Amino acid sequence: MKLTPWIAAGALVAATLLTPAANAAGIVNGSFETGDFTGWVPNEVSYPVYIVTSPVQDGAYAAQIAGYASGPDTLSQTVATTLGQTYTLSFWYWQDGGTPNGFDASWNGTSVFSQVDIAGGTNVAYEHVAVSVVGTGSDLLRFTAYNDPAFTYVDNVSLSVPEPASWAMMLAGFGGMGMALRARRRKVAAA
Asked: Does residue 179 sit in the same domain as residue 143?
């Protein structure tokens, strides 16, 4: 099958638009599946930070951050991003136990998600959070947690580029143009 110049151009544009965005950034060891803190910097202020096998949201491991209200613990990672690119930061967390407790996710020192005195317990499941952040080239993601009577867990942390619906429409348009040109050539060849 011979590709027309329009179909080839459409494929080239689609590959150019989609490939760099998918590979522009990434969280290292976001599900803690190395069984350690590879890629992360734990800061144990008032209680040890651990890799645990239960409870987990995905895979075999998760991170446990405890800390006390008087000295919250942190878990951070510096992420390479593209300057000005909007990303979706996604993670799952579980705030276990009673109060006082608090959990904060920050991007370059600005809080993007925060909860205080979350009602929790052993019957509560992981909760999903997805927020938009903008890359500066090198960005600091930090989770800060305290939970005086129990623990906080984090799992399945990821950073992705949202796919605009216009890209899908553009690809459909290129496909339609290719089909129209092909039909036109068949019509001309038959005449």
From this structure: no
What range does the domain containing 56 cover?
A: 25-160
Q: Cα(36)–Cα(85) distance, rounded to whole angstroms?
A: 30
Q: How many domains does the chain have?
A: 2
DSSP class of 104: E
134 exposure class (CB count in 10 Å sphere: 0-12, 13-18, 19+): middle
Are 54 and 90 in the same domain?
Answer: yes
Distance from C-alpha of 114 to C-alpha of 75, rounded to nearest angstrom: 15
The pLDDT score that the predictor gives to residue 117 is: 87
155 strand-pairing partners: 92
Residues (pLDDT < 70) of the chain are 1-25, 120-124, 165-191
Whether 90 and 117 map to the same domain: the answer is yes
Clarify whether residues 36 and 60 are in a common domain.
yes
- What are 61-109's pLDDT values in tens digits? 999 998 899 999 999 999 999 999 999 999 999 987 778 999 999 999 9
